[in-house]
Automatic annotation (TrEMBL), chains A, B:
Keywords: Flavoprotein, FMN, Monooxygenase, Oxidoreductase. The keyword Iron does not apply. The keyword Oxidoreductase applies. Pfam families: NMO. It is an enzyme of class 1 (oxidoreductase). It comes from the Bacteria. It comes from BD1-7 clade bacterium. This is Monooxygenase. The lineage of its organism: Bacteria, Pseudomonadati, Pseudomonadota, Gammaproteobacteria, Cellvibrionales. One of its GO terms (molecular function) is nitronate monooxygenase activity.
Length: 374, 374
């Protein structure tokens, strides 16, 4: 498609695929979109392995990396990551740990046996843990975009990324946050409506997109939240979006590394089966509604801790229910962030098929609009 | 525009304007759209006056009437409206009445002096009160559409309307409700996403529209919730909507009969200033967030009563805050149902100007899509 963002980033179709799976990154980029690897939760060593694999398999195509680059925490200057982790751990009430552990136990979720992952729950959300991830990404020639999933990245980090010739994107759920991003120097704003999976506000896409596009014009805006087919993509482009940022639809593609039970949970869900819940990270995020999300809202709940504490409590739950998705009643207490578009997800497709389908549906819908031309 | 629904209803542009103001009905229809008078809250006598005025001023243009045609209440057969009202009144705890009255008093809302309106709060939401409204509407030659704002209308009522040669529309917020409507014989389904004003579910427009359109194809679907300009209209049409159902944008047009203070409250609001609240009718509806909506969620709140009881408690608050919108702190406790699109509403325009703007923005946005054609 002949859009400025396609020319800028060297892609054929302005479909951005957020995914934690390296295979999906490669397949989407090779099909003409831009694969973006969600690196939160990886250690620097793990990220290096993933990016090595991507570079070995990608050929000449561009891709992106998504990191959470936080503003500094108050008082964090004098502390290393281990000290901070310890200090934060001490702030977690035992009742929260017990509540989470009991939910897992009651539903037969096995303990995690592999301790090679990142330490309990900071998930790369402090500058100390994010920095090595960013450095690793910036070593890669084919990385054309660094995306920031939460908040406005620090100005000096944006400058640093710009000096390497890459673009910076950042997510927002409110028009005023988009303005903040732009003022800080962000090149591309991703406006994610309430329909979307993961951290999301409560303004719906059809309103948010318009508000953000108008607020920061001519800065390009990627539309996110509720895009699963070519008609929804056309709707976003009709409003002046520079492209679409998609996540949910890549969770169950053939190339996605996930247990069959997890993929099936998406096919089984309707558009009514998600909920915006603070139960995993402490901030409202959309995910499949299940026993876990209900329990944290229920009368026995100890309440939610603020980020990053809630995520430290639930980190073990996240990885155990992901790893053992098909075991016991893991799906009842599992962490499955996904948007309302899950109701449209019906079957396993390849990434290439999804991209081709988006394009076909887009072209067909545009032809219909032209036949109805006022 | 050359769409089937335009041909069916004899309109030029598939923009449906829901409004409680007769002037807006006339102006929108005369500008090529379809004005739809929201008749809930009118007595039959009041509705007769409004429709007489519309018929005298409309000329040859079509319009619609929106009524709530409920399924029968259990046990309602043996009761007339007065008996039912009395029985329902007896079910309302005094604490709820006191809580509402205290909020009004604390914010200087004057008592209502005019008792000519309908009796306290059933608002035409029982068959006994809805029937005379429907009969009145069916006397009018230019009424081409009867819309039902809540639930599936009874099959025998749909048949009766069909026999007079008119179409029946019904709102939904879930795909499964759209299917129920279709099975009952409804001709046109209005799919209203969570962004919309008034009663609304929690599925966002961009997802809901797609799901409903697919679920009941080829039954026409009007897209509602978040449509305030031509780009948003194009987005809806891109997804295969037969037209758009709009409400919020008509609240502050020049022809809308509302106190300046009420119109100003919309211009002052951003897309973040609405909330889905049960505080007025007992069912979740989107409205301006204010002291009233906060108080009913607060620690002193007696909780929400089910429909229609909550509406009977708040009926007096609704009409007092509407009538005396500019007095005291009425806006802090007023009932202002409106969608998130309120953030786009900036100034008073005429109905004709709004329709012209929608068309211009639509055509411009479509031209841009064609330039970016894949």
């Amino acid at each position: 498609m002949k859009t400025p963002i396609c020319a800028d980033l060297g892609i054929d179709i302005p479909v951005f695929a957020f995914t934690h799976c390296r295979d999906v990154v490669v397949e989407v980029s090779r099909a003409g979109g831009l694969g973006v690897l969600g690196a939160v939760g990886f250690t620097a060593e793990q990220l290096k392995q993933e990016l090595d694999w991507i570079d070995a398999n990608m050929g000449d195509y561009p891709y992106g990396v998504d990191i959470v680059i936080p503003q500094k925490y108050e008082g964090a200057d004098d502390m290393n990551a281990d000290d901070m982790l310890e200090k934060l751990e001490a702030m977690i009430p035992q009742a929260h740990r017990d509540f989470a552990e009991k939910l897992l136990g009651d539903h037969g979720v096995p303990p995690f046996s592999d301790e090679s992952g990142p330490k309990g729950g900071l998930l790369g959300w402090t500058e100390d843990t994010a920095r090595p991830l960013l450095d690793e990404a910036l070593k890669r020639d084919n990385v054309v975009l660094i995306a920031n999933a939460l908040g406005t990245p620090p100005v000096e980090i944006i400058d640093e990324i710009h000096q390497t010739g890459r673009k910076v994107a950042a997510l927002c759920g409110k028009a005023k946050h988009a303005l903040k991003h732009k003022q800080a120097g962000v090149d591309i704003v991703i406006a994610q409506g309430s329909e979307g999976g993961g951290h999301t506000g409560d303004v719906g896409s059809i309103v948010l997109w318009k508000q953000v596009i108008d607020a920061i014009h001519p800065t390009p805006v990627l539309a996110a939240g509720g895009i699963g087919n070519g008609q929804q993509m056309l709707a976003a482009m009709a409003m002046g979006a520079a492209g679409v940022w998609t996540g949910s639809i890549w969770l169950a593609v053939e190339e996605a590394e996930a247990e069959p039970a997890e993929k099936q949970s998406y096919f089984d869900a309707t558009e009514e089966d998600t909920v915006r819940s603070r139960s995993f990270t402490g901030k409202p995020g959309r995910m499949l509604k299940n026993v876990w999300t209900d329990a944290w809202e229920g009368p026995e709940s100890p309440g939610y801790l603020p980020m990053p504490l809630q995520g430290m409590v639930t980190f073990d739950a996240m990885r155990r229910t992901k790893r053992y998705a098909g075991v016991g009643e893991c799906q009842k207490v599992g962490f499955n962030p996904v948007g309302q578009v899950v109701g449209q997800m019906q079957q396993v497709e390849t990434c290439r098929k999804v991209i081709a389908r988006l394009l076909t549906e887009y072209v067909d819908a545009l032809a219909l609009l032209n036949r109805q031309m006022p």
